[in-house]
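Sharing a chain and its predicted structure for anyone who wants a worked example. Both blocks are below, sequence first, tokens second.
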Amino acid sequence: MNKDELKNKIRCGETSQVQFKQQFSTQKEIAAEMVAFANSEGGELLFGVKDKTGEILGLDYDAIQQISRELGNTANEQVRPTIYIQTDVVDVDGKMILVATVQRGRNKPYKDLAGHIWVKQGADKRRVTENSELLSLFQDSGEYHADEASVKDSSVRDIDTLALDRFFQNVYGKPMTEFDVPQDQLLHNLHITDSEGRLTTAGLLFFGQRPQQFKPMFVIKAVWFYGNSIAGTEYRDSRDIEGTIPEMFEQAMMWLKSCLRRTQNGQSFNSIGQLEIPETVLEELLQNALVHIDLLKTAAIRLMVFDDRVEIVNPGCVMGGHTIDEVKVGNSYARNPLMANFCSKTMPYRGLGSGIPRVLAEDSHVEFIDSKEGNQFTVRINRPLTASEAGSNADLAVSKGEKAVSKQGVAVSKEQMILAFCVEPKSLSEICKHLGLKDRYKVKKKYIDPLLNKTLRMTEPESPNSPTQKYVTI
């Protein structure tokens, strides 16, 4: 890191990945900061910078040597499992700043010697106390897979025997009854049931009679909107798609095909035409959403068709520290390996991280958005918008007498503009700029506050006035 890069970081203030320290305080306190970084996305401790104000004070040679030793001892002795830090000294206009970098951990959860598990929340940190959040840390490190968890109060009586028979016939070429293994042992060997005869989550979602009886949020909420705004109140069709994963996949594909246009593309007059978005693209992205959903998050998959795009919003961001660029070239991390295994044997799913590269090979008009703050993964597939549709949508909007106009020419209110803009977390300043308004207090009181906990939520609900507070559409 050079001088200018460091000065820019300091100028931006403390964030979830940058922390100021005037001096080394105590090993206990610094260990908590290291743990929080390692359990989150990593970060940097800047020694020689005044807390809160960001004033560059600098360190002398002796202080740098002492802090470096203390950092090494803290990482080795005060954090479990042990983490490795990197230190660097940067000269900022004659003032020496010690930069200690903590990488995003791969062996989560990390804890201090007291057993406290810390994570970052904005520029601050907080202790993890909820079991679900602890499981999420284990899941992120690959130590826990939610699809292998047992489903409370379930049993083999909840299995769809016809679906199970089809599975055995297609995969093994013979019915389950022809195996020289007791049925309960066979189901346990395949991880369809656990040792006590309860269904695993993967077993339920692939072979259960009524999966939503046990997992009511495991649905696809499909909406076909008028226009291009998620905040629109008019829609052409809306439904909840339920069933097993193979059933949901088939129903969602049929629904998408009914929403999308077919074009002739040089085919004969009697041909049904080609789907405007390649079918392979839709298959791969739908399967990806169903297989890689974060089962620890109580949220549905959202499938939305607009006039200019299709969006698939999946609970759970990219895991294992991977980036969108890595996913695009086929590097993957299986959040639900058991579900991926069943999917490869019952659906067109191929696994091996090849789905996204195939999508990109088929259609270049696809955008991937990985939201760490919202813990969701969004895929946007652009579709052509005909002139007649654009005109009819504009006419519909004008007839409703709305107060504002979006970029697509569809009239919407200020509240609708906020909800559409905050699909990804946005700060109050960003919202004001988007609305073209300067009075932050008025925007918050008049437009944002009435939406909170209904259609909008804060990213830091425990600290409503936090300088890093953002808002995201529910």
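Comments welcome. The CA atoms of residues 454 and 474 lie 8 Å apart.
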